Amino acid sequence: MSNVTITEYQGIETSTWCPGCGDFPILKCIKDALVQLNIAPHQVIMTSGIGCGSKLPHYMRVNAYNSVHGRSLPVAMGIKLANHDFTVIAVTGDGDGYGIGGNHFIHTCRRNPQIVHIAENNQVYGLTKGQYSPTSDYGYVTTTSPEGTIEVAINPIALAITTGATFVARTSSGDPKHMTQVIAKAIQHKGYALIDVLQPCVTFNKKNTYAWYKERVYKLDDEKGYDPHDRKAAWARAQEWGDRIPIGVIYQEVGRPTYEDQVTVLKQGPLVKQGFNIGRIKDDIELLKEEFV
Ligand SMILES: Cc1ncc(C[n+]2csc(CCOP(=O)(O)OP(=O)(O)O)c2C)c(N)n1
Ligand SMILES: [Mg+2]
């Protein structure tokens, strides 16, 4: 039985999102998943970068660090290393997480810290009024690509699998029930968990709409015999885009140690609880002086 209630997560700021924005269901589903798992706001910290999607933590009552553009994941990593007792949830947009923050994305996949990464993927730069993003489909017309973008879109699912992520999922703002289930699974996963959310931008992306996604998505849970622990099968599903788009847990590897599990000093508990070892620091300074001064 859960004691935590949704009202505990109720924020006080008024949202600047457009009516119908696909970010609203994401906000609701994150709260619902945390309540389902009986995780209280003081046990959670969220990070974000810059963009419409990155405003999400502003609209919840939760610990949060709104970083600069593209830096949601490294900040989340720092927080995890300082206090791995926290449930750490990093949110990014597609531009934020896969474009300017793309390098951090790749290396977080390799490192496997227990961080949930929710990528609000609307396939466009929403906040800056509709330029193409790293996930915009080839040929997508915007103010900065009047003849259609000539860049091939990033496939975040395939990229995450190939760079070592241990939990890779996709869900949709059009299916909040599904999204809550996926977020709850991601929070329970021991390791880095990517959730790419198909999140319509109702103002600037007139192509990838709720209807466009609805026509194409299908649930992996309904696919008989699909095993997300089978990397080859996951890789094949990761290639699907266009007419058929799979949603659900696409890949999961169980048992790989997290980054923080392997850092010796963290075995004694979270750094923030270990106190400040002044004596040792003094010794270190003396040793450095001996060596260099
Ligand atoms: C270093 C830097 N470069 C560029 C910008 C301008 N900028 C702000 S948000 C943004 C793109 C946001 O797109 P996305 O991450 O997809 O988020 P969305 O608004 O679509 O949710 C850009 C380019 C910035 N704030 N900082
Ligand atoms: Mg975007």
Task: Provide the CATH architecture.
Answer: 3-Layer(aba) Sandwich
Kindly report the name of the CATH homologous superfamily. Answer: Thiamin diphosphate (ThDP)-binding fold, Pyr/PP domains
C-alpha Rg (nearest Å): 20 Å
List low-confidence stretches.
none
Based on the structure, what is the oligomeric state of the protein chains?
Answer: single chain
Helix amount: 25-40%
Q: What is the terminal separation in angstroms?
A: 62 Å
CATH classification class: Alpha Beta
Helices and strands, in order, run as: HEEHEHHEHEHEHEHEH
Number of domains: 1
Q: Ligands bound here? A: thiamine diphosphate, magnesium ion
Look up the CATH topology: Rossmann fold
Question: Main sheet?
Answer: 8 strands, mixed
Which class of secondary structure composition applies to the elements?
alpha/beta
Approximate strand percentage: 15-25%
Mean pLDDT: 96
